[in-house]
Amino acid sequence: RRMIAGTYALSGALILVTGAMFVRNVLTAFTQTLLWSLTFFVASPAASAAYLTVSEIFPMEMRAQAIAFFYAVGTAIGGLLAPVLFGALVATASRVNVMWGYVLGATLMVAAAAVEWVLGVDAERRSLEDVAPPLGQAATEWTVG
């Protein structure tokens, strides 16, 4: 939970720094690519860990469906809306307008960090059954206890 929230928040901060430097026109192609690479280097483990977290927090009988659902929603939002929105911002040829795209991306990353911090589950060094007991086990414990 802490690693995911921290890397998402740091990614959001890096996006804002990159956007601010972009709008001030102080980046070269090399330095902009370097900042993007650094941002993706930090964001990639966050996204990977968040994907794995979905498989940890749902009971075994629901894990595949949960992963498929969250993957489909994420792909629909990120894969369909983002290119249209950011393409429109780039088409304006205005650095300020493109900066708003950076702000949106950073806001989403920081919001994801906050959600993970508040709702995330500390699953380190715990078995999957301990984090999310199978549905059959939970029903048995409920009726017996």
UniProtKB/TrEMBL annotation:
Q: Which UniProt keywords apply?
A: Membrane, Transmembrane, Transmembrane helix
Q: Which residues cross the membrane?
A: 7-27, 33-54, 66-93, 99-119
InterPro entries to which the protein is assigned, alphabetical: MFS_dom, MFS_trans_sf
Keyword Protein biosynthesis attached: no
Q: How does it sit in the membrane?
A: Multi-pass membrane protein
Q: Which GO terms describe its molecular function?
A: transmembrane transporter activity
Asked if the record carries the keyword Lyase, the reply is: no
Residue intervals of the Major facilitator superfamily (MFS) profile domain: 1-124
The entry's protein name is Major facilitator superfamily (MFS) profile domain-containing protein
Tell me where it resides.
Membrane
**Please, which domain of life does this record's source organism belong to?**
Eukaryota
The primary location reported for this protein is membrane
Q: What is the lineage of its organism?
A: Eukaryota, Discoba, Euglenozoa, Euglenida, Spirocuta
Q: Which GO terms describe its cellular component?
A: membrane
Q: Which organism is it from?
A: Eutreptiella gymnastica
